[in-house]
Amino acid sequence: MSVLTKRPVLRWLVPATAAAAVIGGGAAVATVAGAADPTLPERSAAQLLVDVQTARLDGLSGTVVQRADLGLPPIASLAGMLGDDNLMSLVDGQHTLRVWYAGPDKARVSLVGGNAQTDLIRNGSDAWVWSSRAKTATHTKIDADGDHGAPPTGLPTSPQEAADLALKAIEPSTQVSVGRSTNIAGRDAYELNLTPRDRASLVGQISIAVDATEHVPLRFRIYPSASDKPAFEVAFTMVNFDRPDDAQFTFNPPPGTKVNEAKQLVEDAAKSKDGQALQDRIAKEKERAAKGTKPAGEGPTVIGTGWTTVIMARLDQPAGQQPGGDEMKQITGLLGQLPKVSGAWGSGRLFTSHLATGLLTDDGRVFFGAVAPEKLYEAATTHR
């Protein structure tokens, strides 16, 4: 079946808009592959994008290695509070995952780290998240018209998923070219490079290795503008395009595992103190909407375009004054560890990494983008 028919669990789909933008002249297409590896026929960037767009994938299994050196500050420990700490460890260091795919409703990703294992499984209408460390399994029932993706991790767990996200960014602000042919996991591949035209972006280049035969991404790299070393990489070290056996997607909770139903967890959270506060806020927002009034903090503001876009959002209350339980207090405390900065725009805390920068102002504004701090300060001065 075509990967374009539905949104599969590992998001193998690369949007048609990516190819359309290149073919239509939206992005500059330069260079052809073939010179570096004469065993591969020449393919232009536009042709490679069409190859990926029209690829057919009936099955796949393999081993993926993910490496991350994002230059995150110590506050990255916050990630462990936001979900399975084994999954959130993907933001730093090197990790190995096993992946299996047999259609839009059958996929599995397994992350083994130290003495812990975390599995994300989609099998028909059933989706599971299992953590060996927590000895818990969360089950979600998916409607026939529901999302055809795996339970989200917030981070790409395969080259295909990462490439899907990157190719959505193709527009006139991006130069697309074909680099040297390469070999990934024993398979010949073309290298497709996406380079931001605006040198103010912290992203220097995105490189995607595309299988010469199956036309699916085998490796994905992000290079920061200040370095020729990838800040993030996810690549197959072994890959097989045979369809995995259906038994691979059957999950039976191991003895001693506490099984949670996602629907019940949501209902229990809604009955808690913080959940009731959220329901009250939603009710107020609906009341405002009915009256035709728009709350000051509704929705993010997009500043700029392309690779130097800055997103601005507002907190309900100024930084350091947020109500909430112990977890919110911990988060606020961690944010308080960020370096203090100030300027004509006011004062606040600054988050920096190799690929992105964030600014939390003391008056409750949040700015984020793949840009240097100066760009955020400029946005904070003009958007109050």
UniProtKB/TrEMBL annotation:
Origin superkingdom: Bacteria
Keyword match Signal: yes
Coiled coil: none
Signal sequence region: 1-35
Record key words, sorted: Signal
Keyword Aminoacyl-tRNA synthetase attached: no
Full protein name: Outer membrane lipoprotein-sorting protein
Provenance organism: Asanoa siamensis
